[in-house]
Design brief:
The chain has 3 helices and 19 strands. By secondary structure, it is mainly β. It has one domain: Porin (Beta Barrel). β7 and β8 form a beta hairpin.
Length: 407
Amino acid sequence: MLALLLALATLTHEHEHMHAAGAAQSIFLQQTSGTSVAPAGEALPMTMFHSGSWNVMLHGIAFLNDTHQSGFRGRDRTFSTNWTMLMAQRSAGRGAIMLRAMLSGEAATIRDRKYPELFQTGETAFGKQIIDGQHPHDFFMELAAEYAHPIGSATGYLYLAPVGDPALGPVAYPHRESAMEIPQAVLSHHFQDSTHISYNVVTAGVALRAVRIEASAFHGGEPDENRWNIDGGRINSASGRLTFTPISDLVAQVSFGYLTKPEKLEPGDAKRTTASVSYAEGPLAITAVWGRAYKESHDQTLESYLAESSLHLGRSWIAARFEDVQKDELFQHVHTSPVIVFPRFPVPVFRVKAATLGYTFDFLVRGSARYGIGANYTLYRFPEILKVFYGERPRARMLYIRTRWGV
């Protein structure tokens, strides 16, 4: 009888451990880059298999793009945008462990350290501001470990990453299902989610039912021009994020971050505030994002708005993106120290609107991979004065071959 009671107690104890570990592992299920949360309804392309006690997941996407842009500042270029992710997780007592690596080979295909994109700004190439172009992603987009453990009816988690994504902004655009069929970057990237590649990231959070609260400390400087190494840097910036999931297919977040000298060429610190809502169910994914950036160097606050959607119908993918963003870096300008009050050098700010519509057709589906061919077209609206520099009606056309693996 005693032996039976001991066996039952052991089984009960093991069941409680398994249940607790399962609850902890569920924290990882909706995470994409860093600890950002995607709607459960996203049909994330992913191949899953087991290796010992580890559950392993693999997925990624790659585009071979050919872009043609009209106007005085337009350029033509052939290049690739791509990334792949490997994630492994397992139980650890009552908790769970997750390891994640995310890599990109963009820098090997993008010459001049940028690809053409009208009205895009941010980071540097050859020691100068990138204007009308987008930098390639670093080879190491993320190298991270995360541990989750039940705390009463809640679950606490700790995320550590020499290269990772702090708790600031929505799911970064390369990893949003609503944006995944548009290969070029969003114009509001540096107002909303550019910290998705940051260094020495430490995030602690707690999840209770539909709410997650988390805070991060990290190095605030943006990646340098060497895209093949890990920059590092002392922890000098902080952020916090509140995520609300009223239903599994709907995720909303608000976040705020203080960034210490994020720009290589621009003195001073920055403050970033974001809010977003994402919905995904079946073939439809929709995201709306608002981002505000305060730049200490020019004592200016800039705003951005974005709405995007993708619709998957059999072998067809329809994608749309609309943006309204204030730009202050369309021209090389003098950077002044925030310590110097006078003289203040005025920096012109221009409101740019862009609308992109795209279509992809999967001409081949084999196992866990899809191969598609597609195109998108972008129209712009901007202040009259910029027509002298950009032309009357600049346009952008993108043709591409795309593969998604891990479907």
